[in-house]
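Example record

The entry below shows one chain as it appears in the dataset: sequence first, then structure tokens.
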Amino acid sequence: MNNGIDLVVTEYPIRVGNFEGFSWIRCEGKGSFLNSPAVKEFGETRIIEGEKCLVMDLEACTGMDSTFMGTLAGLASRLSDKKGIFQVANAGEKNRNSLEDLGLDFLMEIEPESPVWKGVEEKAKDFLQTKVAGMNSGTELHTRHVLEAHEILSDANEGNRKKFSGVVKMLGNELAEKSAKSH
């Protein structure tokens, strides 16, 4: 195992680490639009570096908003395109239901029977590190991140498309207005 790689926090920490055969991401507290950019940054970096398995540990996660779940879905989709897997550990009933309600269980393995990290979970958690980073809420970059997460959820199934159409439209309009003002 390698020592953890630093990444991320805002109000609720995201802890991360690289290990032999997988990368671990742990959300402590609420998974939200505030800390999801850190999850995305770490996950995308690991995928670019050739990682084939990302593990999202939700044991200490008290709940997830749609931006956070859209970020997870985006990473799962990118991994799938590269023949990798996105696994969810310690989901608990509430978080599992949230993911399943949006139809995301077809994109990721929730509580897999034979996880790559079986037997080293506690050791992995001991190596995780946290670093403060992130995106300021309300910036154009942050708005784009929230929009992208909701577009991913909308693409996941027709029910989500209807559920998030207002958010996608509002954020798209907001970005268009910002773009028009800057030109």
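Notes for this example: The domain at 14-134 is CATH 3.30.750.24 (Transcription Regulator spoIIAA). The longest strand covers residues 14-19.
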